[in-house]
């Protein structure tokens, strides 16, 4: 009888021990889950901070150098400007590029001569007339060659397609002999918005030193 009672007591003790073990098990899971989630939460916060930094960078004022170049002279000047200012380059490319024959001013039947004689032909389609992240630029240089005393008309398409409100616009041009004339004023009138500075003309073989001296005097 005593052996039977002892056996019953042993069984009861075993059942009681198992019950406590079963109750303790769920308490450990939330602790482990919280520990496992902690790195994820930290990563989310880091990603949010990084995104905020990116947004701050995009809203900072930048410099853009926009140019149309028929023979490479204006392109060279634009590249110097971008290097000196740390600005971004944006080339205005006609959807139908000008060939050497198109640019033969001495031929009355050349493309550029016909466009000069008939203003309705000057609406030159560009590969792209708008710039990505346009709002991130506070200063915009606009470069062009002089054609018949005015800005080469492919630039007109870009000017008409963009809002220059809140931007400082710096016109520059290249030519073998012609001056800047009223080219910059005409572009400013066409734009209707923006703070347009006086235009500056550079010779066809402009040097980087020339550009540096000019930029130093702009007080941008």
From TrEMBL:
This is Flavodoxin. Residues 1-21 form the signal peptide. PROSITE patterns: FLAVODOXIN, PROKAR_LIPOPROTEIN. Residues 30-39 have a biased composition (Polar residues). Residues 28-58 are annotated as: Disordered. It comes from the Bacteria. Pfam families: Flavodoxin_4. Transmembrane segments: none annotated. Gene3D superfamilies: 3.40.50.360. Residues 63-216 form the Flavodoxin-like domain. Keywords: Signal. Residues 42-57 have a biased composition (Acidic residues). GO terms for molecular function: electron transfer activity; FMN binding; oxidoreductase activity, acting on NAD(P)H.
């Amino acid at each position: 009888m005593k052996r039977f009672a002892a056996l019953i007591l042993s069984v009861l003790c075993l059942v009681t021990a198992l019950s406590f073990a079963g109750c303790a098990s769920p308490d450990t899971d939330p602790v482990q889950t919280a520990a496992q989630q902690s790195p994820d939460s930290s990563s989310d916060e880091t990603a949010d901070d990084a995104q905020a930094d990116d947004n701050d960078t995009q809203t900072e004022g930048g410099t853009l150098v926009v140019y149309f170049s028929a023979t490479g002279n204006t392109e060279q000047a634009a590249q110097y400007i971008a290097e000196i200012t740390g600005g971004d380059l944006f080339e205005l490319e006609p959807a139908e590029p000008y060939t050497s024959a198109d640019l033969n001013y001495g031929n009355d039947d050349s493309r550029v001569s016909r466009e000069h004689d008939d203003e309705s032909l000057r609406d030159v389609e560009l590969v792209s007339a708008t710039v990505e992240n346009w709002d991130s630029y506070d200063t915009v240089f606009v470069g062009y060659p002089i054609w018949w005393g005015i800005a080469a008309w492919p630039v007109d398409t870009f000017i008409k397609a963009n809002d220059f409100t809140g931007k400082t616009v710096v016109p520059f041009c290249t030519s073998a002999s012609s001056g800047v004339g009223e080219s910059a004023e005409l572009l400013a009138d066409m734009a209707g918005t923006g703070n347009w500075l006086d235009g500056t003309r550079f010779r066809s073989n402009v040097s980087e030193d020339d550009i540096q001296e000019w930029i130093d005097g702009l007080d941008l």
